[in-house]
Structure formats: C-alpha cells, structure tokens
Amino acid sequence: QLRMLRSWKRVVPLLKLLGFVGWVVLFCEFLIYYLVMFQCTWPGLKLAHPREKEETSASTLKVLFLSDPHLLGTVRGHWFDKLRREWQMERAFQTAMWYLQPEIVFILGDVFDEGKWSTSQAWADDVRRFQKMFRHSSNTELIVVVGNHDIGFHYEMDQYKLRRFEKVFNFSSAELVSRKGINFVLVNSVALEGDGCSICLAVEEKLHHLSYALNCSRQRQADHSEKCSKVNKTPSSAPILLQHFPLYRISDSECTGEDAAPSEEKNAIFKAKYDVLSHEASQKLIWWFHPRLILSGHTHNACEVIHDRNIPEISVPSFSWRNRNNPSFIMGSISLTDFALSKCFLPRENTVLVIYCTAVASLIFVQAPLQLFHQLLYFTHHLHQKLKPT
Ligand SMILES: [Zn+2]
Hints:
The protein is an alpha/beta fold.
C-alpha cells in the first residue's frame, strides 16, 4: 500500500500538469470565442414611437455579413496554417450561430483562396471543408457571393469556374434575394469589367433587367406606366447591394477605425478593375439600383465611404486571422425602410498568443522550480529517514 501511495504521489504532478495544459488549450481554442462574442449585441433601429417596437421586431431581419475567409488550397497553404485558420473560423462561425442566431448570413466572396486555379479534386476538398466549417441550422440561410479568388480575376475567369461555383453555392451572377420584403441584390463584381466579354454581357443584361423590375415596383404607386405592367413584381423597398469588389474609390486614405488599413497602406492608390470596380461600373450600379446601402469585401480592411452624398458603402474586413489580427463580421438589423449596423470582433490572435506564452513561461519559471523544490524536499526527507540511527 505504501508503494502504491508513493507511485500515486509521483503521478499527481503529471496529472496537475496535464490539467493545466488542458485548461489553457480549452480556453484559447474554445471558451475565448464565447467570452469575446458575448460582448456583441444586435443593433437597434431608431424608432419614432415605442409602440412601433413590436411591429418592428417582427419585420426586422437579423443579418450577418462576413467576407474573405480565403480557405487555403493545396498550392499556397501550409497544412498547419490551414488547420489553424480553419479551426479558428469554424469556432468563430459556430459560436456566432449559437449565440446570435441570425436569419441570414451573407459571405461577400473569396470563400476560397485557390478556387481560381484549383483542380476539380482540390475544389471538391475545399467545398467539403467549407460545408463543415460553415454548417448551420435550418433557421439560418447562408448565401455566398462570388469573389476573384473563387473564379479568378476577369482575365482568369471562365464559364467552367463560374459554373462550378454557381452549382455549389446556388449562386447566380446577378440575383435578387427578398426576405421580409427587404431586397438584396447579389452582384458578380468580377464580371463588371465592361469590356463586352460574354460573361460580362450576360451579367450586365441581367442586372439591368433586375434594376428595371425593382424600379418599377418602387414607382408603382405613383406611376402605372405600361412598360412596368409587363415586369415581374418585386417588393418595393430600396435594395441593398452585396458584392466582392468595392465601388470605385481612390484609396483607403479616408478610412478610420481600429481595423482600417494600416497607415503605410492607406495612401496606396487603388487600381480600378483590380482593387476596386471601375468608375463606370460603379456609376452604373448606382444609377440602376439607387441602393440604400452597399456592402463589399476584397480589401480585407474596414472602411466606410459615402457615394453620391447619401449612399453608404461598408467594406467588410476579412474573417480570417491569416489576413488580420482582429477579424470581425458585421451585424445588421434591417427593416423595409431602415437599417442599423454594428461590428462584432473575434478574439485577437495576439491575445491568444500571449496567453499561450504566459502559460509556457509559468510552467518553465514557476512550476518547474516548484517541482524541483518538492523533489529536493522529498529526497532530503528520505535521506534523513535512512540515516536516522535505529
Ligand atoms: Zn478579393
């Protein structure tokens, strides 16, 4: 029994060590997402009268917007980088689904990093991992918009890549999604090159038709023109544009906030049709749709721009820790006539690293000397027992 007690005494420190490591890992890889996300709340709409509150909550749509997860592929992705980033995004998304329970989630493009050149086998593997990471209940709808990394920039884009993307995500390059009477227009912004390519022509034609139908519905009460009578009815609220490329802007120099572009990147002049849409394509979208709000991705940084004096555009930062230290998503409460947006940050990568480093340091500099001290004490006690005259 004495022997058992001794071996148990030797196992206890090991168990303590394992318990400590287990707790640190559990906190950094699991609990921290809850802790950080509990600070996020749905933004409230400004109401003229408290009585409106009940009506509004029923007609308000809770939407999450995220962008640029860039799931790594086989060519550029190191396996550990891939594993780590995907675990982080999966935990962040799953925690958000459980805690915030949005009705719709929009991903604004660049779901994959290598969709632009991946083989069909690599593509299938990317899609499988995406579906696992971004799984959700049937109460939430997940809608994905195409980005340049999914199908390539305009010069790399072809029918094959576009079709395989459309098939997986049930996406169309110009589509109207209406929920609770709120109109979202999904745009394939890679096809807005304006050079008359066959994909570009088809997308522009569809967008034009769509804008026509929307404008007819919005003007219907005032104007029953004959042309509009032939057009499919849509809900009459002003649409929200969702696309990957931002509308044309010179640079990010005007952007503010802790997750705006770093100062050394801010003044870099954007290349039209590469960093942002061309000036012409941007004007076309505004003229056609008169949107009340635009959300886009691609730059990986946050920004808020006002177009034509009253149309706000929000650049949604990247959702991946590979692209930034403080990823986030946008939470929107949207009604027929109003919207309110707020940002929910995910845990900072630095915080997680600091916790791991502190834990390792405490093991080396506190636990290990303590352990040594205990062993020394045990040894001297043992020696003392042995040398004691009987
Ligand atoms: Zn992009």
